[in-house]
Amino acid sequence: MFRELYQARELVWNLVKRDLKTRYKSSVLGFFWSFGKPLFLMLILWFVFTTVLRLPEFKKRNPDFPFALHLLSGVLAWSFFTGGLSDAMHSIYANSNLVKKVKLNPAVFPVSAILSHLINYIFSLLALFCFMIAYRTPLSPHILLLPVLIFMQTFLMLSLSLILSSLYVFYRDVGSILEITLTGWFYATPIIYPFWLAAAEIPKRFSIWASYVYLLNPITPLVVAYRRVLFHALLPTPEMPDVFLIYYLLYVLALSVIMYNIFVRIFSRLAVRFADES
Fold first, then answer.
1. Which one of 30, 125, 127, 230 has the largest count of C-beta atoms within 10 Å of its C-beta?
2. Which domain holds residue 224?
3. CA 133, CA 135: separation in Å to the nearest integer?
4. Using one digit for the tens of pLDDT, what is the confidence trace for 93-128?
């Protein structure tokens, strides 16, 4: 499939530009919204969890790490994940007129949706760097690993987008299921709270098996790794042991490869019926 997508790279790029233009058409602030929405969510969460529901353990463990940066880095990664998956899921059905009239690989639609959100994510990270400068956050060489993490998250999203976009053509219920799933998934990911707090509390409140289930979440190591490479100098005590984090990231990569190989076959089998169903 990658070979076909490379051959259709001009079409993919045109679809990406169309998505970006459509998203910000008649918008005064334009690309600001790629950062403004996550920023607004971060401000709400920051207010709630520093004023109403406090996390004193966070301040004790990381006295020099601003909670706002902790939140914002996680919210941005999560917004990229949810926004990309949602748009990718609708992409084939939304472009049904092209699917029916033009001979092309329908995978170009979910791929272009993911890539357009990737561009938004990169712009939002530039805004995050402005916040880091404001908080006088020192940078470390670990930040050079940031593109690797972005690639891993994008590949994970591309794999999931294949199955979601193909199933949505036949079953609209997939949209509601994804919305409900993402709501729970948000709280099962250490975005608001740090990973070490979940690792300590889950076995106490439930069981050790609940911890294993919690660790199946592939977004968890990505969020933790983003914080590790961005704020390495502010986290003398890592959120997750580095060795464990590396193994956990390898698990995400292996899972993404497995899902891609399975979902691309399902996608190819269903693709021949897209024109009739969409």
1. 230
2. 2-277
3. 5
4. 888 877 777 777 888 899 999 999 998 898 888 888
